[in-house]
Amino acid sequence: MLGDLLATHERIVANIPTGFQRYLHARINWNHRLVGIVGPRGAGKTTLVLQHYQQAYHSAEKCLYLSADHPLIASVGLYQAVAEYFKYYGECVIIDEVHKHPDWSTTVKALYDSYPGKKFIVLGSSMLNILHGKGDLSRRLLLYSLKGLSFREYLNFRYAGELPACDFDTLVGTHVQLSRRILEKHPTVLRDFMAYCATGYYPFFMQCSPSEYYQLLVNVIEKVVYEDIPSIRAVQSGSSLKMKRLLAYLSMSTIPTFNISSLTNEIDVTRDTLYEFFDVLQRAQLATVVSVAGRNVRAFKKSKILLNNPNLYYAISTGLWESAVNRGNLREAFFASQLAQEGGLHTSATVDFTVTTGSRAYEVEVGGKSKDLRQLSGIAHGLVFKDGIECGAGPQIPLYLAGFLY
Asked: According to CATH, what is the number of the domain 2-145?
């Protein structure tokens, strides 16, 4: 058994690219004994961790990569497989697809307690944070969430560049200079931004054509809805199909606000079930609900309900968005995808969003290049993020710059 696992490890690590690294790599405390990384399928979790393996261990005798859904693991059990490895080798074990193993949190806790000198890195679905507190891992597990590519990362990955990230306050204060520096290296930045919004959020865009990308992304959605979610949370018969109907309905909407009563009728579910759907789809990073600041998580009035990133709109409703004149949802989905998980993003009573940083609250409109400043009248810290402009002035900022925050 161990020989087979070692052989599988060698085959997988041999094909890991070593150039471009995701933003999260530098943020992780790799010295912690139990690290968890969650994120959407296709975001690059495995590549991220195996790049760390190449740098820190570079030998299967020091660190073993295995997947919890491997037939051998299913046959002998995760605990037994890791225990066998530690008999002969090892400082660390990387466990991919950990959510596929029955009662994974209890097993990982047992390994952590049984081998106090060893390190463990576990990777899994975004849904894992539902179980963060189970198996008494909350005091042991340092959990990180990996998002899809930012626009900055997309440019760096596609063109082997090293454009730096910045925080929101810096972006607002220096956006003219930032745009000029970016344009020096990427004079086709607007064309690149359109390509990113269509097919650039997931790193596998480099390996396929746009049509193949959309098919792979639909496959990802299918696996999340039919495998990941049911494996972690009990769902009623027919719920997976209704969840897909909800995603399709969101993908075809040109406005991000909905009447919940109408939505329950459209999807044919109760209000509580609809709230449950939004909860799991957010955790799976397929949808984003941007709510009013201070409002209860289930208070959807005046909230914006978006797909997690623009690529999902194209993948689910390709024909609609490739010919769409009104790109409002795509712009807002992009903006939310770059800021939502950092906290401080809410809907606003007067404009599209409120962005709260350590220093102030900004009132933000998101629109096309013809968007004017009338809605910012009388607002102290009002901004307009405009699609279709290369460089801004004053409170008018190119939308693509929101993709430089991570």
From this structure: 3.40.50.300
